[in-house]
Specification:
The complex is a heterotrimer of chains A (354), B (508) and C (296). By secondary structure, chain A is mainly α. Chain A contains 16 helices and no strands. Chain A is globular, with a radius of gyration of 21 Å. Classes of the chains: A mainly alpha (354), B alpha/beta (508), C mainly alpha (296).
Chain lengths: 354, 508, 296
């Protein structure tokens, strides 16, 4: 039953979206066919979809881990900006190092910067009790301003009008799928980070459900009073959870800088942090769910472009409308509880009698 | 004036009120007594409309009335002062009093008119309080007066007071009684919910006694005595007798010396009142004996247990606790558990269990980080499962499915699970509070047997229970706690329930 | 130092604070009743878009303003129903609304104006550059009065501090919270409408660019009180005016040049500091963020 609910929410959201499309005079079926179908074309559809899913997996994992600890990390956006900048900085400043050293070093920079940026609101909550929602939102703005500053004043290529840093050393590039698989175009930026994202999912799963630290984190999220009784330090868990969450969000920098643009580009994030919240919610805060939800949102984002081009009135904004509706339906699950409970009771009775 | 006829109220599986009948004459002070969980507050909340009864009638002035919300009760002249004050701390006295019954127009709140009326009510009933003071700055006694004024402001003719003297000092209690007598003289009817028999005898005209959701007696105060009331309250005989051999106590395991726990909550400024929940408690527990602490809930038992378990902020604690000769000061809950002190908390849902987690995951709470459950970083799932299956079997937890969420178990089985978990530690000191609360009869016997068996293995057991039968039959030595202090020690083998009941409620 | 306080800078501050004040006052009503509102951003966008679109359609900015308020209320209604009736997590609901308003205006303008997210430009006669400013500053004392001197305000505050006590006093907690949230939608929408039909003369995609969050920060900085919130908004507006005026670098009297980015960060850092309890005690309404469950 737990698995059924996200599907119901998504289906309901599509119905609502369909109503919107109808209201402006277009055909919902056709719109959805374009929206979803185009994401599955080979090679561009699937390639870009997987590429777009990569940052969403990272932020989805980040928000999930925080949720599991009972915390709301709205700051994934800021964490990934700081991390991306740190990655670029490392790739520039240490560019002379060989790839075998530089790539891991850049990855460490990404995770570390994100972790620190996440730990700060965590510390504020643990020590002063100030709510992480506001603090993480503030940190988002500070992050963007800081990264912007460093880019503009220290790391821009002189004469470059675009707000971006100098390119990182080629030693830090991550290989694209096109380089490994003949027949797959290299222009599609799907790169090794995607594999990293899947590995991260596995790591998060193992961490949360197989290690003692993950147990403590989840226990605290479920019932801090009982966790305290079990000898778990609630304060330490808060900081740890926020740091891990930030570190995961930071891995977006690896995809963006090492795998795609090879530099820090001001404003590169297409709301990955906020969409991560939706991904975590829809994926029920579980790594497998996160992958599926990230794919769904990536499909929607990718599909938005042909929808924009090929329908008469519908723009790619339908994607945000769908996203928002999905979040609302998942969050307000009480809305579905009565009909779903009746369904479940009916099924259960049927099974007992049959 | 007020009559509850055949009122029944159920919460989930618990029958809080079982066809109760209560009659209160107008112009009297009527006391409703009973132990915690007897159903007194529930019955009155039904009368006030805070809860709706499942069946039965409420009659005001002889006429059956529909009271579905507090609004209805207020309109009929019924006012209630709850045990936990319903006040908005950051607002003033006047603002709190007029909330919901504001004077003036919708566009202008007339606090001055309200203040004037409050002052006149204050004078009439000697409830002096400054209408413009902020509630958070008031003492508890003053806050109570605000609550009374709230009811009087709305022209209440019947006032229901839930445990009004629980938070007052003796001097404040005397002032409070004077106020009540004044109100009675003015024709008000007053119902007091309390468990303090001495006060009942001092102030009330008639008493209704409740126990386990039923009314077990109604008498005129002048015709009864504290002893009789105590007996009605706690039950005549001990219902359960546990088969146990005579204890063979060994060395002193736990030694508590002058232990005090502060409330940790700021009481109003400029007001001298002891804010200690536990006040200078001393006793010891030897290996192989069960020391019971009897008392009405809220007299410091929980803080006592939690302080020894390491769950209270050390800043609030003064006094000494030593275990096996070594002081526990500075050790956190984890360290104490490692020393061999196990803890079964009174609130299994909030403190003791992770309801959303599986039984497997609950069994390892507290030992999840060390061998044999975890070696290094990874939790050994096989070992966890082995442990869980073993505990489920030995403690008769049903259904014995390690993958079920703890939420799915009945209260009794949850309790057995917790007990099994703590016993698995092979503790040398067991702190256990309310071990059979909300547990069915079969499980109660099982749990009692297990506790005695643990004692026989040489463990020291400190048992806190509000169930007099239980604590009398299980304990080898019995202490009674009242208002944070040890009121006395009795020999459970020979003591009478009525006498213990008296100690528990502050009598002699 | 004299350059810092020119008339144009003061005027700039007033214009930049106006949307913040309106949105922050809206947030005040919502949060004082106990409902966290991080969707001020989305509500502002609703007002901005609707104001511009309807003004274009009808030629009258006043009708546009009314329509903007209606739009804000509608969006707030979604927030209210999800948070109050279905007890969804208020922060998540707020986030959803913000995401919704990233797309909905664009969607609608694509349909009605065949544009990529902007509304058509409005002629100068159809703008209301001054009225919202007057409204913003007038609403501050009005809010103070409503909050502290009317029964409605008393009940609203009670519901946000101690809903059980309010319930016991016979007040409909849900209804009060609905009022708070809907008011926040209306006020934030006016703030948004000012941006489009008061200043820019059109709506562009995501034109609020974070102002809703700054308003929220100002509300916290202002300890959820009307006058302090006004001062906070003025302060934040001032920092924004300075960053624009100084074009990249702020020269302190001592001669040092600080890049504008650091001035931009000041409001955010200060809010975090205040929230941690360092500058006076910023205590939110006690029941903020918690859905009210009655045990019947």
């Amino acid at each position: 039953m737990k698995l059924l609910f996200p599907l119901v929410a998504v289906a309901a959201a599509f119905v609502v979206g369909g109503v919107f499309v109808l209201l402006i005079g277009d055909d919902p079926i056709e719109t959805y066919r374009l929206l979803i179908g185009s994401a599955l074309w080979w090679p561009d559809g699937i390639g870009y979809t997987l590429f777009l899913a990569t940052p969403l997996i990272f932020t989805g994992l980040a928000v999930s881990v925080a949720f599991r600890a009972g915390l709301l990390n709205i700051g994934a956006e800021g964490q990934l900006y700081v991390a991306a900048f740190a990655t670029a900085w490392t790739g520039i400043v240490f560019g002379h190092l060989p790839a075998a050293v530089l790539v891991p070093l850049c990855c460490v920079a990404a995770v570390g910067a994100g972790a620190i940026w996440g730990a700060i609101p965590g510390l504020l909550k643990a020590r002063f009790g100030s709510h992480e929602v506001i603090n993480t939102i503030m940190m988002n703005f500070i992050a963007v301003a800081l990264a912007s500053y460093f880019t503009q004043y220290h790391y821009r290529v002189p004469g470059d009008a675009i707000m971006q840093t100098a390119p990182i050393s080629a030693n830090a590039y991550l290989p694209r799928l096109g380089q490994a698989m003949p027949g797959f175009p290299e222009r599609i930026p799907l790169n090794a980070s995607f594999v990293l994202a899947l590995l991260a999912c596995g790591a998060v799963y193992v961490f949360l459900w197989r290690t003692k630290w993950g147990y403590e984190l989840r226990a605290m999220g479920s019932n801090p009073t009982a966790a305290e009784y079990g000898g778990i330090s609630v304060r330490r868990q808060i900081v740890l959870a926020m740091a891990i969450s930030g570190g995961l969000a930071g891995m977006v920098g690896i995809n963006e800088v090492l795998g795609y643009r090879h530099r820090y580009y001001d404003g590169f994030s297409d709301n990955y942090g906020f969409t991560g919240i939706a991904v975590a919610l829809l994926g029920r805060n579980h790594p497998v769910g996160v992958i599926l939800a990230a794919l769904l949102f990536a499909i929607l984002t990718r599909g938005g472009i042909p929808v924009d081009a090929f329908t008469q009135h519908v723009t790619k904004d339908i994607v945000q409308i769908l996203q928002a509706t999905i979040i609302l339906f998942v969050a307000a699950e009480a809305f579905f509880r009565t009909p779903l409970t009746r369904l479940r009771e009916g099924l259960r009775r049927g099974r007992l009698n049959g | 004036m007020l009559e509850l006829r055949n009122i029944t109220k159920r919460f989930g599986g618990v029958l809080a009120n079982d066809h109760i009948n209560i009659t209160v004459e107008p112009g009297t002070i009527h006391a409703i007594v009973g132990e915690n969980g007897a159903g007194k507050s529930t019955a009155m909340r039904v009368a006030y409309g805070f809860y709706s009864a499942d069946s039965g009638e409420i009659l005001i002035d002889g006429q059956a009335r529909a009271i579905n919300r507090p609004h209805d009760a207020i309109a009929l002249g019924v006012g209630m002062v709850h045990q936990h004050f319903m006040l908005v701390d950051t607002m003033s006295v006047a603002e709190n009093i007029v909330l919901g019954a504001e004077s003036g127009t919708p566009f202008a709140l007339d606090l001055d008119a309200a203040a004037a009326r409050i002052r006149s009510l204050s004078d009439e009933f000697t409830l002096s309080v400054d209408p413009h003071a902020l509630v958070e700055q008031l003492s508890v006694g003053q806050q109570q007066r605000v609550e009374l004024l709230k009811a009087l402001y709305r022209n209440a003719r019947l006032l229901i007071l839930d445990e009004p003297t629980a938070v007052l000092t003796p001097r404040e209690v005397d002032e409070f009684f004077a106020i009540l007598r004044g109100m009675r003289a003015q024709g008000k009817t007053i119902i007091i919910i309390t468990h303090k028999l001495a006060e009942v005898l001092a102030i009330s005209d008639a008493v209704t006694v409740m126990r386990d959701g039923k009314v077990v007696g109604r008498v005129n105060t002048q015709d009864t005595s504290a002893a009789e009331l105590a007996r009605l309250m706690v039950g005549r005989d001990v219902l359960l007798r546990v088969e146990k051999a005579v204890a063979k106590p060994g060395a002193v395991a736990l030694k508590v010396t002058n232990l005090s726990v502060g409330s940790g909550v700021k009481v109003g400024s400029g007001f001298s009142r002891t804010s200690r929940i536990l006040d200078g408690v001393s006793f010891d527990v030897r290996a192989g004996e069960i020391v019971g602490i009897a008392g009405v809930e809220g007299n410091g038992q929980r803080e006592l247990i939690e302080a020894i378990a390491g769950l209270v902020d050390p800043a609030r604690i003064s006094g000494d606790v030593t275990f096996e000769g070594q002081s526990l000061a500075g050790l956190d809950a984890r360290a104490r558990r490692e020393r061999g002190i196990a803890h079964i908390p009174e609130d299994r849902h909030r403190r003791g269990l992770l309801l959303e987690f599986t039984l497997d995951e609950n069994v390892i709470l507290g030992v999840h980080y060390r061998p044999p459950v975890t070696s290094g970083v990874f939790i050994d799932d096989k070992e966890v499962r082995r442990r869980t299956v073993d505990i489920l079997q030995r403690f008769d937890v049903r259904p014995p499915d390690p993958e079920l969420p703890a939420r799915a178990l009945s209260g009794g089985n949850q309790q057995k699970l917790m007990i099994g978990r703590e016993f698995e530690l092979r503790p040398r000191l067991l702190l256990v509070a309310q071990p059979t609360r909300g547990v069915d009869i079969g499980a109660i016997e099982f749990i009692h047997r297990k506790l005695v068996a643990l004692r026989d293995e040489g463990c020291a057991v400190l048992l806190v229970s509000a169930e007099l039968d239980e604590v009398m039959s299980l304990s080898d030595r019995l202490l009674v706690i009242h208002k944070g202090r040890i009121a006395g020690e009795v020999d459970p083998a020979v003591a009478k329930a009525g006498d213990i009941g008296l100690l528990m409620t502050g009598g002699h | 130092m004299a350059e810092l306080f020119t008339i144009s800078l003061i005027w700039s501050t007033i214009r930049l604070s106006t949307p913040l004040i309106l949105a922050a006052l809206g947030g005040l009503f919502s949060e004082r009743s106990g409902v966290i509102n991080i969707a001020l951003e989305g509500m502002m966008l609703a007002g901005a878009f609707t104001g511009a679109a309807v003004t274009y359609a009808t030629g009258s900015p006043w009708i546009g303003l009314l329509a903007a308020i209606a739009a804000g209320v509608c969006i707030a209604l979604i927030h209210a129903v999800a948070s109050i009736r279905y007890k969804a997590d208020q922060v998540v609901v707020g986030t959803a609304i913000n995401i919704l308003m990233l797309g909905l205006p664009g969607f609608l303008s694509g349909a009605f104006f065949l544009s990529s997210g902007s509304t058509p430009q409005l002629p100068i006669e159809q703008l209301i550059p001054r009225a919202p400013i007057v409204m913003a500053f007038a609403f501050v004392p009005l809010t103070w009065y409503v909050l502290y001197r009317t029964p409605f305000g008393l009940r609203l505050r009670a519901v946000g501090e101690n809903p059980e006590a309010a319930d016991a006093a016979g007040i409909d907690v849900a209804k009060m919270r609905y009022s708070g949230v809907l008011l926040s939608g209306a006020l934030a929408a006016i703030g948004g409408a000012y941006l489009s039909i008061g200043q820019a003369s059109l709506f562009t995609r995501n034109m609020t660019s974070g102002r809703g969050f700054i308003a929220l920060a100002a509300l916290i900085f202002g300890k959820w009180r009307p006058v302090e919130t006004l001062l906070a908004c003025l302060f934040f507006g001032f920092t924004e005016a300075v960053t624009i005026q100084m074009q990249g670098v702020v020269t302190l009297p001592s001669g040092e040049a600080i890049p504008v980015h650091f001035i931009q960060m000041v409001p955010y850092v200060l809010t975090m500091v205040v929230l941690a309890g360092f500058i006076g005690h910023s205590r939110p309404p006690r029941a903020l963020g918690r859905a009210y469950e009655k045990e019947r």
